[in-house]
Amino acid sequence: ETLEKCVYCPKLCRAACPVSNAEPVETLTPWGKMSMAYFAGRGDVPIDEVHAKPAWACTVCYGCKERCDHKNEVGPVLLTERAELFERGVAPAGAVRAAERAREREADIANAARALGSTSDATAALVVGCGYLVHHPEVAQKAKAVTEKLLGKPVRVVESCCGLSSHLAGDAPTFKKRAQALAREVEGADQIVAVDPGCARTIQVDYANAGVTVREPRLLVDIAHERIDAFSKASDAAEPVRYHDPCQLGRVLGRYEEPRAVLAKITGEPPREFERNRKMADCSGGGGVLPLTYPEASRGAANARIAENERLGGGKIVTACASSLRRFKTAGADADDLVTWLARGLGI
Ligand code: SF4
Ligand code: SF4
């Protein structure tokens, strides 16, 4: 039904899509991707890599949903399509590489988590996120210190990856294995704290769909907001910052004001805004394994956001998820994670 609504739609959402904005091709609009999935399901197009690839032209940013009268959720539908196409062996090379990479780096993630040091009998479990652990270990270290300071007790860093990368690549069997491993690891924890909103959403929503039960994680940004009085103005807060709404934290989990309030407390003034912000914010292009499946579109989306920041007067971009942080940094932007500022505000 969701697919059919798109097929017969006048494409009201097309301006929202970071992928088709960066690569203006009809097949890459939300309508084009959903139509391809619809026709593939009906057997109207061959099931091969060429016709499969558009299913991976999505960062699962939910931008189209905000402009859709039906509130159609294109991203999740395309994720289901990815899993089917992956199983049939027609996933594009970038997706296969993303799935392999996710499988190969299991040990690296566990080692990086172990390197942060855990108190074995700690009752709170911290899911840092593999994007931070592998690509931004300095942020991961600060995330642990910030969480422990705000909770007032030690935490145990979870060594299992939540499996989001496998899920996004379309590798459903590996995703389920990861979910089960994480569920075993956090069993008995009195609370689970998630730093990355992508992990939080995966555990909260996608695990249930995969038949894995884990208690709902608390977001670190929520804990920071609840404890906002614990933060002071940072001594090195002279530079202006502009807040980027990560898609998973904003449109999916609905946290718009919490990160802004904490950031304002630490910098001494409300962060600068992008023209399109909160639920209409543009995606960084870093999610959905897009950097591997459509690298040009991914770079184009990041460049557009960075250019907008410069056009509006600049400032350090502060984001709150590992994939957008990496996307902005690899595109050459001066970007920080919110966690870095939380640490500054706590004097860590
Ligand atoms: S998501 Fe909504 S607006 Fe976009 S093509 Fe589908 S039905 Fe149309
Ligand atoms: S969820 Fe985002 S990336 Fe995917 S089709 Fe919609 S607007 Fe495009």
Q: What does this entry show, briefly?
A:
The chain contains 20 helices and eight strands. The protein has three domains: 2-91, no CATH class; 101-220, Rossmann fold (3-Layer(aba) Sandwich), CATH 3.40.50; 225-345. It has helices at residues 2-7, 18-22, 30-42, 49-52, 63-66, 74-87, 93-104, 106-115, 130-135, 137-151, 164-169, 172-186, 197-209, 220-226, 248-252, 257-267, 290-293, 295-311, 322-330, 338-345; strands spanning 124-127, 155-157, 191-194, 218-219, 241-243, 272-273, 316-319, 335-337.
Write the topology of this structure.
Blueprint: H1 2-7, H2 18-22, H3 30-42, H4 49-52, H5 63-66, H6 74-87, H7 93-104, H8 106-115, E1 124-127, H9 130-135, H10 137-151, E2 155-157, H11 164-169, H12 172-186, E3 191-194, H13 197-209, E4 218-219, H14 220-226, E5 241-243, H15 248-252, H16 257-267, E6 272-273, H17 290-293, H18 295-311, E7 316-319, H19 322-330, E8 335-337, H20 338-345
Parallel strand pairs: 1-2, 1-3, 3-4, 5-6, 5-7, 7-8
This protein binds iron/sulfur cluster (2 copies).
